[in-house]
Structure formats: structure tokens, C-alpha cells
Amino acid sequence: MKVTVVQMNPSADKAENIAQARRLIEQAVDQDKPDIVSLPEVWDSLGGDRSTRMANAEHLPPKGSNEPGGPAYEFLRETARAAKVHVHGGSIIEQGPEKLFNTTVVFNPDGTELARYRKMHLFDIVGPDGTGYRESNAYGAGDEVVTYEANGIKVGCAICYDVRFPDLFWELRKQGAELIFLPSAFTLATGKDHWEPLLKGRAIETQCWFAAPATWGKHLEGKGEARFTYGHAMVVNPWGNVVAQVSDGIGWATARIDQTVTARIRRDMPVLEHRKSV
């Protein structure tokens, strides 16, 4: 199975973000012909103030229904149908009953929703550059571990800050995941030191492929302050090798997921069998 990770430079302008995503996906599908294409975290709306995020948030239709969704949801569904590919929709802003949710939706080539995952771990930190982040002010946390199947491969869902919490990834491995998507909007300050080591570490310990689409570059927060995300979207194999990567700028990278590699690594080093609960 061929997987494409897309790297975007989104803003608070939802229509422009959808247009950017459409252009990149069309180019990637035309040139690389992937089986599944993926977008970054909050690709539909990054930056702006609280009112902008609320305005850009979408009420998602009941899972399994044919009811229409918002512009980002429908773009993902129609892209899957038109391109005849699986679309792992990174994450979009979902309007919940009380707070927003940072939510992944996944569609198969018929446009049927396969999975929906709400980000579990919320980014409430002070970065090394002194910038404070308080995701929980606006967002609620998900509480469900989510997998789905695409082209005979079990796929696990995670988002950005989740990568720092290995128990989630062990659970995905226990549920049979061979490939894990980690759409992200990693800050520049943390990303330059931690992004690649964390991805490699999670891949090595779970013996899973990791596909990590990412946002890159500058965006503006509500009062016009500049924030920067690191980018470097990549695919990492179960041995911890980076097999495809986007550097700076927008673009995409594509890699082939080889299940024989996964099987060999797991056979020769059966860490799941050796693991002890402590």
C-alpha cells in the first residue's frame, strides 16, 4: 500500500485551506498514485482567535449516516470518491456540545466514513521559547482508541501531542495496528528537537509504520502574534528509518508500506510477547 503525507501551511481562512489541500492532494494523486492520502492536524483552521475557531468548527453528521457535513468534512468525503483513494483527514475542528474537539475523520474510496478519532492528550504547556499553549481552554479530550482497516492493513489513529504518551501506541499495537497516522501541527520550538526522535521511538517500540503529515511555517494567532510550526512530514518504518520526508515548505511525500518488513521485524524481535505490565 502506498501512503502519502501532505504538508500544508494553513491559516485561519478555511476556504483558502480547503483550496490548498485540494491542490496538493490532486497533485499527489496524479503523480504518486497513493492508496491513502493524509492531511495534517487542524489543516482546516490554524490560528485566529476563539471566535474564528468557533466559526470554522463543524457539526459532524452521525457516524454511518448519509447526512451532509460541513465544508471540510464534505471536501474530504468528495475527495475520496473522486480520486478513488482512502483519505485520512488529518484533523478538523469539531463543534461539540460544550467545547470543540480536534477530530480525525477517515473515508474509504466510496466516500464512506471509516473512523472518527478525537485527540486524547491536550497541549497545555509552556514551550522552550516561553510561549504558552492551553488547548484545553477551547477543546475537550477524546476517550476512545480508534483503529480501522484499509487495503488489508490495520491502521491506528493519533494526533500530534499524543506522540508523547506511549501507552496509547501500545494499545494500538495490541489492537493489531501495523500503520499509525500522526497528523500534527508541532511547534517549531519543540519540533526541531523532538519531532523526529519521538516518531522514531514510537515506531521502534511498537514495530509499526508511522505516517505523519504536518503543518509548516508561519500563522497568526488572534491578536496578530506570529506562531511557527515545524513541518517535516514523514513516513517512518518499524525499524525507525525515515523512508520519505518533506523538508521546509508545502508539499507531500509518498512511501510504500511493506507488510513483509513488518512481519520480519516482529518475528525476529517479538516485543509484544515479551512485554510485562509493571
How is this structure best described in words?
- It is built from seven helices and 17 strands.
- It has 278 residues and is of the alpha/beta class.
- The chain has a single domain, classed as Carbon-nitrogen hydrolase (Nitrilase/N-carbamoyl-D-aminoacid amidohydrolase), CATH 3.60.110.10.
- The strands form three sheets. Strands 1, 2, 3, 4, 5, 6, 13, 14 and 17 form a nine-stranded mixed sheet that branches. The protein has a six-stranded mixed sheet with strand order 9-10-11-12-15-16, with helices on one face. A two-stranded antiparallel ribbon has the order 7-8.
- β11, α5 and β12 form a beta-alpha-beta unit.
- The longest helix has 19 residues.
- It is globular, with a radius of gyration of 17 Å.
Core attributes:
278 residues; alpha/beta; 7 helices
Runs in which pLDDT lies below 50 for 5 or more consecutive residues are none
Q: Helical stretch count?
A: 7
Distance between the termini: 36 Å
| Structural Rg | 17 Å
- The percent range for strand residues is 25-35%
CATH architecture tag: 4-Layer Sandwich
Please give the structural blueprint:
Layout: E1 2-8, H1 14-32, E2 36-38, H2 50-56, H3 71-83, E3 86-88, E4 92-95, E5 100-107, E6 113-118, E7 124-126, E8 132-134, E9 147-150, E10 153-157, H4 166-174, E11 179-181, H5 188-206, E12 209-212, E13 214-220, E14 226-230, E15 234-236, E16 242-245, E17 251-256, H6 259-268, H7 271-274
Parallel strand pairs: 1-2, 1-13, 2-3, 10-11, 11-12
Antiparallel strand pairs: 1-17, 3-5, 4-5, 5-6, 7-8, 9-10, 12-15, 13-14, 15-16
Helix pairs in contact: 1-3
